[in-house]
Amino acid sequence: MALATVLFAIWGFLWAGYFALDGFDLGVGMLFLLLGKSEAKRKVLINSIGPVWNGNEVWLIAAGSVTFAAFPAAYAGIFSSFYLLVALLVATIIFRGLAFDFRSKGELRWTRVWDAAFAVGSIIPAFLFGVIFGNIFRGLDMGPGGFSGSFLSLLNPYALLSGVLFLALFAYHGSAWLSLKTGGELQRRAADAADVSLIFLVLSGAIFIVYTVFGTHMFNNYVNHPGWWIVPALLIASLAASRYFLMKRYSAAAFLASGFAVVMTVFFAVVGLYPDLLPSSRSGAFSITISNAAASGYALWLMLGVLVIFMPLVIGYQLWVYRVFRSPLLEEVVMNDEDAY
Amino acid sequence: MDALELSRIQFATTTLFHFIFVPLILGLAVLVAIMETKYVRTGDRIYLRMTRFWGELFLINFALGVVTGLFLEFQFGTNWANFSRFAGDIFGTPLAIESLATFFLESSFIGVWVLGWNRVSQRVHLFSAWMLVLGANLSALWILLANGWMQHPVGEVIKAGKVHMVDFVAFFTNFYGWLKFFHTMFAGFTVAAFFVTGISAYHLLRHREREFFLRSFRMAAVFGLISSFMVFLVGDEHAYDVAQTQPSKIAAMESVWNTRQPANYYLLTIPYPGHNRNLVQTLAIPRGLSILATHSLSGKVTGLNSIPADQRPPVTPVYLSFRLMVALGTLFMLLGVMAVYLMRKPDLHRRRWFLWIMLAALPLPYVACELGWTVSELGRQPWIVYGLYRTAAGVSKNVSTAEALVSLLGLGLVYLGVTVTDIYLLTKFAKKGPPRELAQIIDLDEFRST
Questions:
Q1: Between chain A's N and C termini, which has fewer beta carbons within 10 Å?
Q2: Mean pLDDT, to the nearest integer, of A290-311?
Q3: Percent of chain B with pLDDT over 90
Q4: If you write DSSP's letter for every residue of A197-221 in order, what string do you get?
């Protein structure tokens, strides 16, 4: 049980890593058409994430496959219950991934099509992640035979609100990234985008929290173990700090703070869920929890060993990649770089 | 049709599409890394141009490989939830190791390789190329160990209707998985070799960039010759191993109905599954099948009629796919020998008939790969885990027929669309040829001296 709890924490860490990293990629994609009013600006936007997005996206694969290895029943339950949402998410995020390499490989109209694909392939997946996780927080209509609700029941108001919340969070995080990686007019417009998305984030977040208090069991752990209030406190503090740093033009600090806020958002949810991985809205007896979904002790120890060896390595070389590409992008430079997307 | 049938079609469709892109990634990564190594060693700029040109085609294909693989990772959960619950204890581990140890590597270094030409030193750039090779091929290893376990389960016990991993070393050293890995890896190398020789032949036929494409052709021809022989040798050992571990698959591969000892190999066989026999079997090689399947002159080969009807795979497609794959594999060795022989002649570019053949041969290794997976996966039926768990039992129970149909049509269209786009782009950029000048990469030393 203690071992399963450790793996549960790592499970949360992998999702936090995914959303903190690919979150700003998706945010840049959402803002792509809004901020990219010229080809030079679009090139700056997409190339700001060009060298890192691929490595960021693999955090999703890692989170998914570690769910499979450590909690097979949760992997099976989550992915089959959200069947069409997962299929749609994958079908759209495919186009985001292709847009990088493909957009500069044709004439103007071709580029326009892939630019649209890039934006749509960022907006829809970000929204669907919110819808899926909103449903997880709320609990699914699961009986002894698993999920028995309809597809439309997954599009309930709480889940849709959660989708909006994810959009706003990633748009904010993406804006913070852009204020770090761009200059001049684009940087100013990114700061405006950050302000607008922060307003959406605060508004949707406030409604979301009220809804969560009354409509879910997510706060039970906080009531029973008040020490965990530190997580939402840090979440709010880091959001406020990132806004302050943006205002002061400490772009790197602002970006790190918004990334930390994304991590705390995921931790907030993970603490609230524990020990459930996929709660049932009908009865706790039908919930998928770390005890009824965990793999055998042998498999869990093995998974833990693999994670302990490889995650520091992965984080190490990914940090190195970020360091190699640390300098901000200038329009004239990107336009003359024939390798740029 | 029900959700089970649709899920099977969807798995087959997405896997076969995904595997259009994977083999070229495995092999072309190696060729491009060799080209870049030669450039760094010799400083000869033609190798830099080769790295750039073939690297461009590699990247178009790489993007497709990555995005089409995403759904495969999730599909075990979406469509095969019962299988995932049953086998996740051991089957999830290699997938997790694949993403953590190898896929991260490949996808983190790709950014440096693509956009880092002016940002990192030559050596670091070259290092990124080899990390890409390592990441891609070791990813294949873990995926094929996972598949190897579905073919020949080892290292687990079954408790309360679920698999429990008890011996990871046994899982990791599963001979079946390693054979499959080397067979697949060399198949990928063969695809890449014929890709490069085919496109080089196209340009040589049009008298363009002779030096550039002769060098590319020669490098790929040697690579292809070695790879096509290796894929055949490993394949022979693989078939022998299948005969020991999966009697129903080998029987279907050779369309053997009656158990024989010793068993002949029939060059011409026409299966007649409705009547549990072959319509035609003639041109016998005495004891041929005994030699292939048991490595002895008098080995016994179990026929399909000795296997309960509900444990037999569909015979005709497995048999035809296997025969055609072997025929193609033989052809690749032959073409490899011819290519290496003729490339030593000074007038290779004038032997137009041969260049035409090599251009025409470009798609054939792809076909062989798809046939190979058909043998492997269709031949395992009706099992999802051979001998342990049936495919029909593994399907998700809470996915409706309508949902399965929508996802099959939607994803099928997306996969088809992006594949057509890929072929269009590859053709376009392959035809365009290498850029004349690489003005954008100015050696810093050259730059300073001017």
A1: N
A2: 95
A3: 81
A4: HHHHHHHHHHHHHHHHHHH-STTHH
Of B112, B166, B403, the CB nearest to A83: B403
A63: tokens are: 């989170």
With CA atoms as reference, the chain B residue closest to A96 would be B67
Mutate to test the interface with B, among A56, A321, A329 (most CBs of B within 10 A): A321
**Other CB atoms closer than 10 Å to residue B95's CB: what's the count?**
26
Side-chain-side CA neighbours of B308 within 13 Å: the count stands at 4
- Chain B nearest-CA distance from A263, in A, is 20
Name the residue among B74, B119, B425 with its Cβ closest to that of A325. Answer: B119
Cβ of B70 within 8 Å of Cβ of A94? The answer is yes
Closest-CA residue in chain A for B403? A84
Vertex B383, ends B169 and B373: CA angle to 5°? 80
Q: In chain A, what are the domain boundaries?
A: 2-335
Strands (E), B342-448: 383-385, 389-390
What 3-state class would DSSP assign to A147? strand
Distance separating alpha carbons of residues B441 and B449, to the nearest angstrom: 15
Give me chain A's average pLDDT, please.
94
Q: What percent of chain B has pLDDT over 70?
A: 97
Chain A positions touching B90 (Cβ under 8 A) are 299
B383-385/A276-278 β-pairing:
unpaired
Rounded-to-integer distance, Cα B333 and Cα A341, Å = 39
Nearest to A93 among B62, B70, B107 (CB): B70
Length of chain B: 450
CB-closest option in A84, A102, A310 to B407: A84
Distances (CA, A) of B52 to A106, A225, B360: 18, 58, 24
Rounded Cα gap, residues A45 and B258, in angstroms:
66
**pLDDT tens for residues A24-68?**
999 999 999 999 999 999 999 999 999 999 999 999 999 999 999
Residues B42, B43, B46, B52, Cα dihedral to 10° = 110
Secondary structure of A236-299 in the HEC alphabet? Answer: HHHHHHHHHHHHHCCHHHHHHHHHHHHHHHHHHHHHHHCCEEECECCCHHHCEEHHHHCCCHHH
d(CA B415, CA A53): 21
Shortest CA gap A150–chain B (Å): 10
Q: How far is CA B264 from the centre of its chain?
A: 30
CB of A203 within 8 A of CB of A169? no
Interface pTM (ipTM) of the complex? 0.93
The span from the CA of B414 to the CA of B436, in Å, is 35
> How far apart (Å, rounded) are the C-alpha atoms in residues A304 and A13?
13
Taking one residue from A and the other from B, the number of pairs with CB-CB distance under 8 angstroms is: 231
Mean pLDDT in residue range B216-234: 96
> CA of A167, closest CA in chain B: separation in Å?
22
For A148, which of B93, B99, B398 is closest by C-beta distance? B398
CB contact under 8 A, B410 and A91: yes
Mean pLDDT of B390-415: 94
- pLDDT score of B122 more than 70: yes
To which H or E segment does residue B61 belong? helix B45-78
Q: Are A87 and B78 in contact (CB under 8 A)?
A: yes
Contact criterion met (CB < 8 Å) for A55 and B89:
no
3-state secondary structure (DSSP) of residue B281: strand
